[in-house]
Amino acid sequence: MVSRPRLTGRGGSVVASGGRWAYGRAMRCWISAMLVCGLAHGAESAPDAAVVELRETIAKIVDVKSQASAERLEWEGRKAEMAALLELHRKELALLDEELEKSGTSVPDEDDKRLAAEKELEALKSARRAAAETVAANRERAISLAGLFPQALAKEVELELTTLRAWKAGDEPRDGLQAILGLVAKAEQFNRRITRARELREGREVEVLYIGLAVGYYADRSGNAGVGFPGAAGWKWESRPELAGEVLKAFEELDRRRPPELVKLPVKIVEEGGER
């Protein structure tokens, strides 16, 4: 910040405060010396009119020069202030230009993000339509396929079947698709393992042994036994009492109540073009 000089008038002369006003102080000292000399000379003899007029003229010249010097210094101070303000404005404009340039370069990025979001949304909509079409095309088939499952597997997929029977066009495809996939996954797991269950056969509760989805055997301690195979209309079971001993032996081996050994049970191998 530039300090402005302070001017005070004393006896027709100009006195400046600050180190810049050495010239004014020198002029004041010169005028004082002149006045002292004048007073001393006046004590000896009275000044004439020409001398008095000369003194007044000199004093006015000094005042005018001092005033001009003060105004010049004040203008220089104001000019320095204006230069500082102009420099500040230049910096502000430079910062503003920088921000505008950043804003201008960020617009394409925002456009790219918006376009990417729109593409992603369109892809999600397309996937949703495809999922709905998939559910609609496979819903009835999945329900029909579940009707061929053995009782043990049918109990495991009850939730999926309930969802598929209630699903209709326009519903959320995710639920129907999850039900179909869940049904298929449980059927695959069942087909890869040996499953034991208790079911009713010929009015009696028996224990059933499923070898995947290929064949099933049942027996009880009363001598009842049989075998079942999957068919086009569901599982078909036939009574085979002669299998009771072998089926019970298989249960005891699974329960580790007897050492493992081979058991003889009937199987059906289906090949392309027929059965064997």
Strand order of the largest sheet: 3-4-5-6-7
Distance between the termini: 110 Å
Number of helices: 6
The number of strands is 9
Approximately how much beta-strand content do the residues carry?
15-25%
Q: Which structural class do the helices and strands define?
A: alpha+beta
Calculate Rg over CA atoms: 57 Å
Detail the poorly predicted runs.
1-21, 39-44
Describe the structure.
The chain is α+β, with helices and mostly antiparallel strands. Among the domains are: 7-94, no CATH class; 193-276, no CATH class. The chain has six helices and nine strands; from the N terminus they run ββαααααβββββαββ. It has helices spanning 22-44, 49-146, 151-156, 158-166, 173-191, 244-254, and strands at residues 7-10, 13-16, 194-201, 204-211, 215-219, 225-231, 234-239, 270-271, 274-275. The protein has a five-stranded antiparallel β-sheet, covered by helices on one side. Strand 5 and strand 6 form a beta hairpin. Helix 2 packs across helix 5 (173-191) and helix 4 (158-166) runs antiparallel to helix 5. It is rod-shaped and about 170 Å long. The two termini are 110 Å apart.
